[in-house]
Amino acid sequence: MKTTSRVLEIPAASPSEAHDYFRRKLSFETDPADVHDDLENGVGAFVLVDVRSPEDYVRSHARGAINIPHATMTEQRLSAYPPDTVFVVYCWGPGCNGADKAAYRLSKLGRPVKIMIGGIEYWEHKDGYPVEQG
User: Fold this and answer.
1) Tens of pLDDT along 8-25?
2) How far apart are alpha carbons 75 and 117 in whole angstroms?
């Protein structure tokens, strides 16, 4: 019979450490529910960016998203946006690192960024939020 816990093999962090960790984690990411709620209510000064290919964007993208493929993110491409613009980026879903690549590029360019976890997979197929084509 097993007598030791795999869950508690490494002790839980203190409440203050956990609070700091989760505050920091949430400064890097958001989710489709929060993005959708902000867009529907006209709050939140951010630009939602689909970082997939133009072809994938045309097929289906989150309503309100613009398309800037992560490989094309340059200072020149972003010059239309004030430097303090927050970008919320997404790609296909949990198995895609395109949003991570976009966040890396944006942060390297000195731009504030968050990743929308779950990507279009969660936006469209899991949560059923509205999409656009074209």
Assistant:
1) 999 999 999 999 999 999
2) 24
Question: Cα dist. 4→10, 11, 12, 14 in Å?
Answer: 11, 12, 15, 21
Tell me the C-alpha distance between 112 and 87, whole Å. 6
Residue that has been written with the tokens 């290919």 in this structure: 53
pTM of the model: 0.93
Residue 15 φ then ψ, to 5°? -55, -40
Nearest to 38 by CA among 88, 105, 98, 106: 88
Q: Letter for the amino acid at 44?
A: G
Rounded alpha-carbon distances, angstroms, from residue 36 to 14, 20, 39, 74: 33, 26, 5, 27
pLDDT category at 2 given cuts 50, 70, 90 is confident
